[in-house]
Amino acid sequence: MASRATPISKSRTAVKATPAASTRRAPVTLRHLAGVVCLYLAIQACWFLAIPAFEGPDEIQHYDHARYVAVNGHLPDRVPARVNEGDWFTGEWTQESAYYWMFGWILRPTGFQDVRPGDTLVQSRHSIWSGGNSPTVFAHGTPLPAPVVNGMLVGRVLSVLFGLGTLLAVFAAIRACTHDDRIATLAAGCVALVPQFGAQHIFITNDTPAAMWASIAATLVAVLLARPASASGWQPVRDWRLGAAIGVATGLAIATKLTAGMIVVAMPLALWAQRRDSWRPQAIAWIAGLLATAGVAFGRNWIVFGDPLATALKHAVVSQFQFRIVFKPGELASYVDLAQMLFRGIWASIGWAAWMPDTLWLRVLFAALTVVLLACFGTAAWLALRGRSATLTVMLTVFVLHAAAFLVSISLVAGYSARYFLPMIVPFIVITLLGARKLLALLRERIGADPVRWAITGMMLTLAIVWIGTFSAVLAAFHFERALR
Amino acid sequence: MPKNRVPLMCFLTLLIAAAFGLAQLEKQLPGMPLDTPSERYPVLPGESAWQQMPMPMCQPTRLTIALAQPTLAPGTISASFFVRDDFDKWPDAPAAIVRTSLIPGQSEVRLPFPAQVRAERRMVLLKLTPTPESQAVAFRAARDGVHETQYVTKKPGYLGVESLVFRAEYPGERWLTPVSCVTGVEFPNLPPTALIATVVAMCAMAAWLCGIAWRAR
Fold it and tell me: Does A144 contact chain B (CB < 8 Å)?
């Protein structure tokens, strides 16, 4: 215990010794944070206005799952005998329960849950799914009933808030790694400007809370790994409370969506990377946090369905909906499709029909930005192999394990979406940013500081222009049909 | 470059990009001031003229067509609604014919949107034909074009024809404004200006971010 007490007391002394520095920095951080929040809210307002109701992937199914909880007061506790049994959309009953339980209990006192969402929706005959070219799945000629509209509004606002949580986690993680508000602001701003991030975070789906909880967990791990920097007044909390917080966030991520599961390795890796004697309190608190969240969710599955993963329920729903495995590990074409899906899914795969703007200049800019990201990622991997940063090593390991698990899962289980990488936002941003810093430092040495400065500013501008182009294309695609020419 | 000018220049650049993007979009919006209908709705062989009508979004069952001037004598107008089939072909026979009376002093033609039309496709051809006993009716043109029929009145801004083919977009899933009618969401019930305002706000914040990028080390 003595070994732990010493650095804490030192760090507290350091903070007290530089009150002026602390008070000077706080407003700057707040101003940058406020800027990020304003940028995000402006962007989300645009997406909110642009994309019609229930056009998100399985959005109506997610909403109806929460509505089931709101109406019945409990999560589904039986295996449905057929598709959409009892006039409930059962397609998302395969998902873990935390999001639906929470959203359902928010809906329950409002009374919005009393009206079924699908009664007035008419399927568009010109959807991409039906062989047409329209990204909208539904015809929106008839206004939805007010309770459905209000319920959907609650769900979408929740998703926007989850996105804000993710963005703040990105800011905090980068600040913990770099101790620089500006870089943290740039990183969070870049994430907000990615069209896919904004569009995804207005849809009712459990991807958004899963991404947020996983991002918070990853950020707290980054905080745990961050070295104290007395100049900035930054001091990570090094006691059991941080371990418990990581455990709770990790548990909530897993209890929200199983595809966020790989974030669970972050904490053991962080403790291993630190190699400190006083790891036990944090490890015990982390396990307790996990048990208090994910443990409850999976325990309920065990009691109700006979095993922690509710396998019988999931198998039944998957077979009823005839979900199929599209990725064939032995076929080259599958990898080409996978690369295309990930490319679209990172930048702009909007709506249920996974529509992407077909404008050439947009795709060229997306490709250019992808090359930049890959270069940063490669540099970060090179740095990690040389053991330059424990944070980088931990985040890269988590990301690589997640990617491996993704490949295995799409080979064995029905499910194929770039959204499964949403919980990896913080690890990915930390990796690419640390790689970018090294890359930019090398470039500064070679070509000077000014061209690098122009390049960074130009990239931000490019990202904003790409957003404008994508948004304009979304407005046109979701509200007009070019086949009418 | 002075660091305080960077956000301003980025803002102007983004604003120009946004204006260009919205202008491109606006070209596709029927009834908007800068509409270029000849690209979106070219006059097809056999059509006497075209016209675009502002459609009542939240009242999709009613169609109002402005007249150039109030009618002077009682009359009747026959409206034939043509609906495209699943192969985007226009049929010879109308899906529905609606007759409506015009009374003296009336400045617009009000038509119900027939269920047969509404249930099918959102793109309809509407042929308005004043009955023989009626006087010629002048419809208000949203835009002057080079149409053979314009010689009837010779007045700029008006199309005076006895039989006019409208190509109209059904007020359903492909309309931008008002947003509440598109999304079904009552809140936020914002006009297009709010949409533009949010885009401008986004440009301002992104420009601020560019300023930070310029100062970052």
Answer: yes
CB pairs under 8 A between A and B: 162
pLDDT for the residue B145: 43
Cα(A113)–Cα(A116) distance, integer angstroms: 7
Residue B29 has pLDDT above 90, yes or no: no
Find where tokens 């009336």 sit.
B106
When CB atoms are compared, the residue of B24, B182, B206 closest to A193 is B206
Q: What is the 3-state composition of chain A as percent helix, strand, coil, each rounded to the nearest 5?
A: 75, 0, 25
Choose among B176, B174, B183, B172: nearest CA to B199: B176
Mean pLDDT across the stretch A94-123? 91
- Give the Å distances, CA to CA, from A292 to A226, A246, A285, B16, B41: 26, 12, 10, 52, 61
A306: left (phi over 0), alpha (psi -120 to 50) or beta: left
Cα nearest neighbour of B174 on chain A? A479
Q: How far apart are the first and last CA of chain B?
A: 16
**ipTM over 0.90 threshold:** no
CB A240 within 8 A of CB A281: yes
Closest CA in chain A for residue B9: A461
Residue-level pLDDT at B45? 42
Token couple for B161: 């024809």
With an 8 Å Cβ cutoff, are B25 and A153 in contact? no
> A42 and B185: CB-CB below 8 Å?
no
- Residue of B16, B61, B212 to mutate, interface with A, max A Cβ within 10 Å: B212
Q: Mean pLDDT across the stretch A268-279?
A: 82
pTM: 0.77
B182–chain A nearest CA distance, Å: 6
Of the candidates A167, A150, A248, the one whose C-alpha atom is nearest the C-alpha of residue A201 is A167
The reply to whether omega before B178 is within 30° of 0 (cis) is yes
Mean pLDDT in residue range B94-100: 81
ω into B45 cis (within 30 of 0) = no
Tens of pLDDT along A431-444? 999 999 999 999 99
Whether residue A52 and residue B173 make contact (CB cut-off 8 A), yes or no, is yes
Residue A435's contacts (CB-CB under 8 Å, 6 or more residues apart) are A375, A376, A377, A378, A379, A380, A381, A383
pLDDT tens per residue across span A22-75: 444 556 788 899 999 999 999 998 898 888 889 999 999 999 999 999 999 999
Which residue bears the tokens 């509404």?
B118
Tokens representing B79? 């409206």
Amino acid at A158: L
- Over residues B172-187, mean pLDDT: 38
Highest mean pLDDT among A212-216, A228-232, B98-102, B184-188: A212-216
